[in-house]
Design a protein that fits this description.
Layout: E1 6-11, H1 25-42, H2 48-53, E2 56-67, E3 76-87, E4 90-99, E5 105-117, H3 128-135
Antiparallel strand pairs: 1-3, 2-5, 3-4, 4-5
Length: 143
Amino acid sequence: MAYRKFDSEVAVRPDDIDMNNHVHTSRYLDYVLYARFDQMNRCYGMSMEKFTENGWGWFVKSCQIEFKRQLLMGEMVVVRTWLDSFEGSDALVRFQILRKTTMKIAAEGSIVNTMISTASGRAIPIPASVIAQYTQFREQESP
């Protein structure tokens, strides 16, 4: 069963542009992280503030991005993310970054987020309550 996909919009700002006059590679990851924080509260009903109150945080363990089209200053982009799987302290998140005007994919990839204790900075198993909160957003199977 697949997880539901959520969208967030981001404007390409002048400080996102590099010397080649397009969005710098590092900003794509910033867009995804922004979208995940936005979606934690707005879509999953569990804000980052709630996480920190519980002594939890997310750490980007690894990421992979495939670039397909450049993004330019002034464009609006749609950042689409969805959960793929959970394993121990890790959550695999997949994403697409799309040009809003055409909805063509500019980049896509995945991120492995590791849950950490903010007190120790060490990885901890994702609590069952968090998994339950996120897994309620699975897509329905066709009969």
